[in-house]
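User: Please predict structures.

Assistant: First:
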Amino acid sequence: MQLSAGRVIARRLVAVRPSNGRLVAVRVSAQQAAKAGDFVSVHYTGTLDDGSVFDTSRKEGRTPLEFQIGGGLVIKGFDTAVTGLAVGQSNKVRVAPEDAYGQVNAEYIINIPKAKAPEGLKVNDRVMLSNGLPARVTVVGESEVTLDLNHELAGKHLTFDVELLTLTAQDSLQKATFGAGCFWGPELAFQRVLGVISTEVGYSQGKVEEPSYEQVCSGSTGHAEVVQVTYDSQQVTYRELLDVFWGKHDPTSLNKQGADVGTQYRAGIYTHSDEQAEQAAKYLEEKRAGMPGVKIVTELEPIKSYYKAEPYHQQYLSRGGRFSQPQDASKGCNDPIRCYG
């Protein structure tokens, strides 16, 4: 087990994806109540039972939090706090551990040989495991180091004071799914697109239900690593998303993208509607016409199945990647993407 010697960059404790600072246009009546599937931006303050503030968007340098209700990017209790609010309304709720970060799990406290840990570790240092999971150092002994993989708010009741700022109704939101090799880099590319509401990585087109990363990597399940994008069709078109996808993979490389080899790294467009299928087919025809004599192996299929990947894969590069160096996910950013961090 390898660790990153640096501390994990401070992250929001409510969501895995920080806001990009862009307030979306309000497309609904100010009196419409927020519901599952709507995209919202909120200001919030989170406190513990002793009154101490553990996180807030209401301070200089912070921006409102944006997320899709029920999309899995915030804890269940936070979804509940926002649901039913109209723009401009506020709510204050106390959330039990079961609807927050769960109870402390003793199995998430592990010991590793000190010789395999970075030098100079101290109690309360934050480290990142080689699989992307963050951990906190709790004991530094003569021969072993104890790491706690539980969320730092596990076992605690949390109180949230939230205010709904904007709301985009679910009706204008659509999904698109693409396979372009290792899903970390393509996800960051889509995160940067104006009109993309949220991104999620997962496994698609396979024959095994709820596969693990290890199973998918074995090549035995038939899944492809994919990015699933939720986007506002009034701000970005499906063709524009196809352009982003096209720029993130080699369409002539079969079951291989860069140094990643295997059927799970095959390139594909997996459509959610007849309209998407028609547009994607036309797009591929245009690309083939522009690349005479070259075989394009990017597959085009209706989406058959989709399973969300493990939490540590989600927004992996924007959260720090392998080397705890977060890459910019802000809208319009065109910085080069470091595929592994």
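Second:
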Amino acid sequence: MPFMIIKAVLLDLDDTLWPVAPVIRHAESRLHAWMQEHVPAVTALHTIDSLRERRQALVASDPRFSYDLWALRHTLLRQILIEHDEDPAKADQAMAVFAAARNQVSLYEDVRPALQTLAQKVRLGTVSNGFADLQAIGLAPHFEVSVAAHQFGCAKPDPRIFLAACDALGLVPQSVLYVGDDLLLDVEGAQQAGLRAGWMNRSGMPSADPRHQHILPDAEFKDLHDLTEWL
């Protein structure tokens, strides 16, 4: 790829700006507690794990569910409510409970100060497969552009979602760096769209996984301060 000055950085969200596993556990726990109170017949038969299994099985039923995780959860809730002769409209209330908890993230310590520094160097945006609400989280003012799979209509590693963010910035892909924690979805996906790609490797895990040997990030970072220094 010919050298071009980096004019913008696009960031992944989950496991790049905050750890996602505890967030999802908390959100699913809050949802299940709400269901125990409002639709106890459902939770008498379904645990958090069994609901997860049903959700995973549902993915294959509609191509939309591969990128719209909100619709996937909402559809399953409606199905289960109908199965138990409950009002399917309660799925909206349930999703509001889940979404509120989903946005209660604990940012990595470097995120807020580093975003302020990065904004002085480059334009910033996000591209995510999740449905976290940056406005609710309080990070939206840091980003000029935010593209979410469930709203856009496809998910990483599809090149279109990366290119849409570049188009929104008015920049050619070669002048944009994408940074994320997943070598396949983030690094390879961005590179195939013509962007440069950095691997956010907060845990210091080795990159020698045989499945990833063909993927060569343009850079590797341990946190956003590391990214700032690289720029």
